[in-house]
Amino acid sequence: MPVTIVQVDAFTHKPFSGNPAAVCVLPGPREPEWMQAVAGEMNLSETAFLHKEGEGYRLRWFTPALEVELCGYATLASAHVLWERGSVPEAATIHFFTHSGELTAAKQGDWIELDFPAEPEEPVKTPASLQEALGVKLLYTGRNRFDYLVEVESEKTLRRLRPDFPLLEKMHARGICVTSRSQSAEYDFVSRFFAPASGMSEDPVTGSAHCCLGPFWGKRLGKEELLGFQVSARGGVVRVRLAEKRVLLGGQAVTVLRGELL
């Protein structure tokens, strides 16, 4: 029987921006090898697979190269698809069961808010290879269980980064999140996310990275509600609200493609 697969642009309100994710709602569990093969075929940063389980949905995320433990934009896309197809009432909170525990999604007008675990970083000594790969002055280097977090001196520096991706791939981390204060009053901070070891040179918008960026900038700016902009070529906006050991991520999403796996 054909399985519907939907492509959604997440953390944006308009098509062809934000981060594209594929969402596959299954009638039941499928083997990881099949899901990995589908993710490779879709060749997007992430493909989400979900099926009904109890009062919620079992959710897994795959890049073209591997399964990941936490992904914001593909979770946002999954919630968007469930509401769009009428699988869940508009006013209902969606519960996702994942490798990173239970996550929830709730509608707030045209926005969707995700309840994710906070993933604060700890300061570390800057690896020489990281400094070499980025090739700019680093104000701060930290790391959490997933990624390196690096602060650079300005948004101008951030936008001009041309990393050495083969060198970054050797960093033994899911990715490298580079950030700075925003030069625009519209946003509190800006960021880029490089993940060659996970199968993508640069991720357009990385919701899960904001589980670290939110606490990082919240402490520095003395704010519990922040607005971030990921300055990739496609760009995307992420609202961040800080709660105790949790980060609430807000974003919008739009469907751009529907198809069938035959």
By CATH, the superfamily of the largest domain comes out as Diaminopimelate Epimerase, Chain A, domain 1
> Which CATH class of the largest domain?
Alpha Beta
Succession of helices and strands:
EEHEEEHEEEEHEEHHEEEHEEEE
What is the average of the pLDDT values?
96
| Overall tally of domains | 2
Q: What is the count of helical runs?
A: 6
Q: Any idea what the radius of gyration is?
A: 18 Å
Q: Tell me roughly what share of residues is in helical segments.
A: 10-25%
Beta-strand percentage range: 35-45%
Account of the protein in words:
This protein is 20% helix and 43% strand. It is of the alpha+beta class and 262 residues long. The chain has two domains: 3-116 and 250-261, Diaminopimelate Epimerase, Chain A, domain 1, CATH 3.10.310; 122-244, Diaminopimelate Epimerase, Chain A, domain 1, CATH 3.10.310.10. The protein has an 18-stranded mixed sheet that branches. A hairpin with a 2-residue loop joins strand 16 (236-243) and strand 17 (246-251). The radius of gyration is 18 Å and the shape is globular. The termini are close together. The model has no long low-confidence stretch (mean pLDDT 96).
What is the element layout, followed by pairings?
Blueprint (H helix, E strand, L loop, with lengths): L2 E8 L8 E7 L6 H11 L3 E8 L2 E7 L4 E2 L3 H13 L9 E5 L2 E8 L2 E7 L4 E2 L4 H7 L3 E6 L3 E6 L2 H6 L4 H4 L6 E7 L7 E7 L4 E4 L6 H12 L3 E6 L5 E8 L2 E6 L1 E9 L1
Parallel strand pairs: 2-3, 4-6, 11-12, 13-15
Antiparallel strand pairs: 1-2, 1-18, 3-4, 4-5, 6-7, 7-8, 8-17, 9-10, 10-11, 12-13, 13-14, 15-16, 16-17
